[in-house]
Amino acid sequence: LEDALQAFGGACYVKPRVRASAAVRPLLVTSGSEAAAAWTALGAQPCVAEEVLPIDLELSVVVARTPLGAA
């Protein structure tokens, strides 16, 4: 995470690679100590680091073929 923090200019969002719940929100990390705390908070599991970008709106779309998500 510290490498990602440096690569992204000192700030990044960190989230689990696989989210089991929408309740798990991305964590904003801006320092090495926050990176260590985020790693612990995420259970020391594989995670994704995203660059902080100046955006006005983020939209997520979920598509399924049937109500149960099956093909």
Which keywords apply here?
71 residues, alpha+beta, 3-stranded antiparallel beta sheet, 3 strands
How does this model look, in words?
This protein has a 3-stranded antiparallel sheet with strand order 2-1-3, covered by helices on one side. It starts with a helix and ends in a 20-residue tail after the last strand. It has 2 helices and 3 strands, in the order H-E-E-H-E. It is globular. The protein has 71 residues and is of the alpha+beta class. 23% of the residues lie in helices and 18% in strands. The longest helix is centred in the middle third of the chain and has 10 residues. The model has no long low-confidence stretch (mean pLDDT 87). The relative contact order is 0.24.
User: What is the 3D shape?
Assistant: globular
Please provide the ordered H/E string of secondary-structure elements: HEEHE
The separation of the N and C termini measures: 37 Å
Q: Could you estimate the helical fraction of the residues in percent? A: 10-25%
Number of strands: 3
Relative strand content = 15-25%
In the sheet with the most strands, the strands line up as 2-1-3
Number of helices: 2
What is the arithmetic mean of pLDDT? 87
Sheet bearing the most strands, described?
A: 3 strands, antiparallel
Task: Give me the secondary-structure category.
Answer: alpha+beta
Rg over CA atoms: 15 Å
* Uncertain spans: none
